[in-house]
Give the backbone structure.
Amino acid sequence: ALTLSLCSHDENFAFLRRADAGDEAVVLENPKTVEYQVCRSTLMPGLLKAIRENRGHTLPLKMFEVGDVVFKNPARVLGTQNQRRACAMFTNTSAQFEVISGLLDTLMTSLNTPHRKENGGYYLEAADIPTYLPGRSANIVYVTQSGSKGILGSIGVLHPEVLRSFELEYPVSSFEINIEPFL
């Protein structure tokens, strides 16, 4: 999918059950409509809206996007910074988490990053992420060649409140990662 870079504040935060500390999203000063208030800081709202608009199609629905998100960064000249991300979603009558997990493994393998806790690998670490169901989410941790660790993104089954916010009736499993370290 190729979704819009602007979205509403609610779609970027409240609909995804994320808190807004005020230091992440770039807010437009004079938006023409409430649908385009902020630059997206996650790819999820656009893909969830795409699933909503295509929910009449035969299940399962499989969507992905590789694109930029924007964050505030006062150290930069314009006060913002882009980050390239990849996000994928799978929806069906059941969540089938193994499908999205397998896609993540395939993507990481194509990036020469095996599933391991050693240098140059990645692994999943259980985490309580509000966007996802409790007990059904994890951080995706990347271990660099030098051995340092960092969180690339997250994976899980979306929370029912997120599904209701985007008017979806079937479970959705998803992951989103920062792909900048691989570029």
Notes: Residues 17 and 136 are 15 Å apart (CA to CA). The chain is about 20% helix and 35% strand. The first helix runs from residue 9 to 12. The beta strands are 6-7, 26-27, 38-39, 61-72, 80-91, 121-126, 132-143, 149-158, 172-178.
